[in-house]
Amino acid sequence: MNPQPFAAAPADAPPLESLRVEPLLTSAFDTDPAGVYAQLRRMYGPVAPVGLMGVPVWLVLDYREVLDVLRQESVWRRDIRYWRARAEGRLPQDWPLLAGYEVRQTMFMDDEEHLAARQTYHSALGPFQDARTPQGWELRSAVVSYADELVAMLAAESGTAGFMDLAAQYTRPLLLMVTTRLFGFPVELGDEMVIDMWRMLDGGPDAGPATGRALAAMTRLAAHRRAVPGDDLTSYMLLADPSLSDEQLGRELFMNAVYLNDITGNMVCNTLLEVLRGNATVRRSLSAGQIGETINRAALANSPVANMCFRFAARDVRLGNFWIRAGDVVSPSAAAAHQDLMAIGSSLVDSTVSTRAHLGWGAGPHQCPTAARELAGTVVATAVGRVFDHFTRVELTLPADQLPWRSGPVVRGLRLLPVRYELGPGHPTTGDPARQGPARAAANGAPRPDPSHASRRHARGLLQALRHLMWGTRKGG
User: Fold this and answer.
1) What angle do CA 291, 292, 297 make, to 5 degrees?
2) Which end of the chain is more exposed for a tag (fewer CB within 10 A), N or C?
3) Residue 122 half-sphere exposure toward CB, CA atoms < 13 A
4) Is there a contact between 398 and 361 (Cβ–Cβ < 8 Å)?
5) DSSP for 270-313?
6) CB-based contact 330:310 (threshold 8 Å)
7) Low pLDDT (below 50) residues in the chain
8) Which residue from 184, 146, 185, 231 is spatially nearest to 457, judged by alpha carbons?
9) pLDDT digits (tens, 9 = 90+) for 74-107
10) How far apart are CA 119 and CA 256, in angstroms?
């Protein structure tokens, strides 16, 4: 793990540990993270020293510097064993974020080990990537069916006009149902496990135990699919690499579930929010039928990942106005980088051509694999598209600046997205075949999927549990 010799930082360059750092996660950050990023940029430039729950971290703010960190794997490592403070025992034992980074998984590997693990993903996701394969078509049809079933349940419970929470009553159960199907859970994926994922990403006091519980659930799934293979991602990963232990496969599934439920879910909610709050460029692309461009523009305006996974300097290196010492921890901020990009390139972002410059899927060697990115993009496009297919009226019931957010060191996601709605005359009804819309239903000449009784029962159970859990979360603070 010893880095090759390079020029060391000058003797007068202050090390991170010697700097007085202000905490990043403050009430000001909760209410206006963009303002905090802007203030840090004015004070320090493209890179700023901050305190993250008592641990000093370099926060990378500007788009160019963030891309440099993401793309230069030889300089900026993902393996936590490069972190000098951890190796020297200087991290608090109960530091909330440590549990997630200790999970030995593809995201936190480098070089050949990382490439081999990505190849396993590429092989396992292959059957689901192409919409023309049976697995790919069935998964995409299931997403449409689940979305329609949730809308049908809303109509049955609350009528064709009323109030709903597009986060808790639509996005979260939809992503949970997709995860259940893709991963091949033999029974319903516990909604409590998704809450555990949020606890881990939020870095609260329950982050460690929550990570352990979610990992245990995924390890049990790996053992089940080893004994009873199915037509699912878990089974295909075992087929691609039979040497994977249940524990290692459980770790891989865990991180994928985090991204599919939390990060992809944030992208759905953020896209809906940018449309509903009146973001002109986002609404213009939606009106033109460019759903992919709508998602790209929304991701630029409101990143689904605020601050990306840590990198660790393999050697002393100059970044921004500072020398970063070997072993220092660096946090690239997608949200701050987007803010910088839109400030310096507004004409590019406002153009009719997609920039695709957002960092929602990452960048460089560790960016989200192509197959996973395409699948997640399909889920987001379907989830957003079905809302505007079925609803003739959707309006926020709170001013956009008063919406409650989960503001943490990694993600900034909506706690709820309350709207007033009206359903169109052709909305789906429970018990009827899922309505896909003419273009989607005609794809490949295949029949429309019929949601089963088990699917409807699954959706109802998830909605009830998530309502209970979210209400409990709000009452608890």
Assistant:
1) 95
2) C
3) 8
4) no
5) HHHHHHHTT-HHHHHHHHTT-HHHHHHHHHHHS-S-SB---EEE
6) yes
7) 1-4, 347-354, 432-452, 469-477
8) 146
9) 999 999 999 999 999 999 988 988 888 888 888 8
10) 15
